[in-house]
């Protein structure tokens, strides 16, 4: 073991999902070591305890894992559990932490961002409940990164990450574990695998795009081997360090091939995809894309059809920009709906306190109290379980849902890599005029209220302010503006646009048409074109 002198970096602030930077930034001497030491220095009582380590397999994953193992040993952890090949999907890592009562875990991922020598990397610390560290921990880590002077590391050879089994690093045990087994077992506990298997045996066809990312091995095992989907149902299943040069982001832009397949005459019954680290999901039925906000509402309304949720839901939580479709399901079920800031970490307290069972975000994250991360394959399996019981198409289920609850037309417009000053200026100007907006009209619609979302955590009493600007119109339409907390270059302005339509006769309209006046209003209110110089969003989801 040796102690190494170092000097701090000033840019190691963990964002919504841990520390995210380009690979060359992480490759600077001592950059990784400083951050990991700052994490350990911010924790107490881990001596002799277990640390889980795993990542999504992207470029630089193995190198960081070796460093993390040697530093965990030097810092006094008793045991490290690491996924074979360095692979653990984010939800699988959460499960391994919980199941083994680990002290915490290091998850190496930049989620849906591209990977490769000049692309993105990330390190996130999760606590013993399996969820992302709360803000007070990430703030302590950040404070520590600014003053750190030394780190400690074991001078031992690299661990063979490909060989399942136990080795010693210093006086610490390292167990290389099967990346998939525990997770697959958990899914079998939650869902009616026999019913899904019977449906598939009866001719139901599915396509799952793993996007050359971490869910490949999980989806192969669960969907093809255990549930009997035809070989080839899981596409792009080999995790690659650069995701084959693509964005492992399961949206209509980056999973276009799947989308086109699902809209074609030869579409299978069900299509889905997951992202780089396996926590996001894209759901597409034959001829119908289900927005993540709708998916959350539809899963919540039907969850009782799966064994794990047969007893009903305790509550439903959604992030603020997520459409309010789920709120009406909660209302009907007579349970509470919670609205939290963006980022999965805010769901952790609600889940731990037993206030909610299901949570979701508009950004394709859905999950439940089975782990403390959003979970892409979980959402896929819950859909499959529901389809197996209802024996109706995705389209029929969606349309029946809208008829019963009304439809929330919804779109997110992202303006990526915008000049940071311009983006900050836009938000500052909006904030400044918030008080004057209520009662005014835009595009013939009256603004009922406008605010900057602030969240009071009902469990720990903490407040998170400035979480996004909400413009609420009379009749239930809404525009939300916020700046991304996960981008790695420039600023990303996200504009979330939603219109509630209770009348079933008006549901069969293309979303852009249904939202046209709100889209114009969004620009009029915030001056997006004028302030960012962009005439249209970079991505619409
Ligand atoms: C984005 C999503 C957010 C999600 C986060 C991590 O954050 O919008 O819902 O929790 O990625 O996956 P943002 O870039 O908007 O801060
Ligand atoms: Zn992700």
Secondary-structure map:
Elements: E1 2-5, E2 19-22, H1 23-26, H2 31-41, E3 50-55, H3 61-75, E4 79-87, H4 90-99, E5 104-108, E6 120-127, H5 135-145, E7 150-153, E8 165-169, E9 172-177, H6 181-190, H7 193-201, E10 206-209, H8 215-226, E11 234-235, H9 256-263, E12 270-274, E13 281-285, E14 288-290, H10 292-302, E15 315-319, H11 325-333, E16 336-340, H12 345-352, E17 358-361, E18 365-368, H13 376-390, H14 394-405, E19 407-418, H15 420-437, E20 441-442, E21 445-452, E22 455-456, E23 463-464, E24 469-473, E25 478-483, E26 491-501, H16 511-526, H17 528-532, E27 539-540
Parallel strand pairs: 3-4, 3-5, 4-9, 10-11, 10-12, 15-16, 15-17
Antiparallel strand pairs: 1-7, 2-6, 5-6, 8-9, 12-13, 13-14, 17-18, 19-26, 19-27, 20-21, 21-24, 22-23, 24-25, 25-26
Helix pairs in contact: 2-3, 2-5, 7-13, 10-11
